[in-house]
Structures are given as C-alpha cells and as structure tokens.
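Lay summary. Proteins are chains of building blocks that fold into shapes, and those shapes determine what they do. In this project we predict the shape from the chain. Here is one chain we studied, written as its sequence of building blocks.
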Amino acid sequence: MIDLNGKVAVVTGGSSGIGLATVRLLLQQGAAVAFCGRDAAKLQAAQAQLQGEFPQASLYAQVCDVLRAEDVQRFALAVRQELGVVSMLINNAGQGRVSTFADTTDAEWEAELKLKFFSIINPTRAFLPDLEQSPDAAIVCVNSLLAAQPEPHMVATSAARAGIKNLVRSMATEFSAKGVRVNGILIGLVDSGQWRRRYEAREERHQSWEEWSSNLAQRKKIQLGRLGRPEEAATAIVFLASPLSSYTTGSHIDVSGGVSRHA
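And here is the predicted shape, written in a compact code that computers can read:
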C-alpha cells in the first residue's frame, strides 16, 4: 500500500474494532505504532496478539483515559521516549448513545458531548507539538455518518458528531499554517462489539450472525447489503494519515456502504 517505515503513529482506542484494525494496518506498512485504551486486560491482549503477528515491529501500548488530560500528556511523553516524534495521530474513541430528546438527561448530554469532543481535544493538544515538527504530519478523526445524517433515536450522539465534523474543518484551517493536515471518516454500520452484543441479545435465536447482520443491512437500506468491516474503515484512515493524501485536508471520507443520503 505505502511504505511508512520511519514514521510514528498513535491510535487512541486501539485495543479493539476499528482502532485495532488501524494499528494492524499501520504495522503492516512499516510504521512504529503506539496505541492506548482504558481496559488494561484488553490492551494487553491486543498487544500480545500484535507482537505475535509482527515480532520485529516497534509497538507500544499504555492504559490511558483520553478524557483525562494528565493521562494523555503522560502517554504522549512515554510515546516520545519509546518511539520518537509522532507524525500521525488517529483519534478513535467513543460509542454511540441510544436516546431521544425526551429521554436524554442533562447529565447524559454533558457526558456525550465531553466524550466526543475531549477524546479529540486532549490527544490533539498533547501530540500537536510533535506533529508540528514532522513532515507530512496528519490527524485523522474517526467520526460517524450521524454527523451529516442524524437519527432521532441517537439525538445526543448525532449532535456531538456534527460538532466533531465542524471541529475537524476548523482544526484543518488553523493547523494548515503549521503543516498539519486534519481529516476524518464518516462510518456507517460497522461490525463492532456493540452490534455483536445486540446479536447475542437477539430474539431469533436460530439466526446466524451472517443472517442477522444481512437482515439488519436490508432494514437499514445499506446498498452494499452488509455491515462494514473494521479493516475497511482502517484503510480509509491510513490513506488520510499517510502522504498518499498529501493534498487533502478538512475533508471526510464516507465509509457507509451506500447508506448515506447526504449531499
């Protein structure tokens, strides 16, 4: 795909799903990669798995809550010491909240907005000094199609995601003078722990995952007829983080299998 030898990448929320797929793809392309997550057991398991797959790779993992600025600053310092100056930052954290306007409390609004915004703000603040020193520096934010196509049953998440889309555009404008590109992806329905848990709670116990997810895709009118794979989102992320997209900033790639109806 591309030679990323000599480059250092950071992936937040990297112990599962899209984050883990992104770490794996970056390692495949030769990058040194640091990743973090809140769950120590999941982080250790992911690190062991990746080290088994890439025994010669430069890999670093640390428990970190991206909503705690001091945690992220410690992570940034450790990455700099272990791997060197970071040139690629992938902000990937946060699940969706299912709630309507009527049943979303003030505390839930505050929690959702804090999660979506500060999971980007804190890592960006911590790693920006590194990125400013790096040629071809890039930030990629994993966002949702809800940013452009809101759902009433996910009102808080939809609103927060729209704000993140605007934040990406604003950071791209401000950071361009520093030589740092900022882009994002808008994901649709991607095979994840959330959907697997919903599958386990299904009423139609006879259905396989393939049958259940295919029916879900039909109900959601996904034109490609299936849920996305984490690896497909990771490919878009690595493209935007790499010099392959050197003339792209302030943009979003739609990774939704055709379910998007926004212009």
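What the prediction tells us: Helices lie at 17-28, 40-53, 69-82, 106-133, 155-175, 193-200, 209-219, 230-241.
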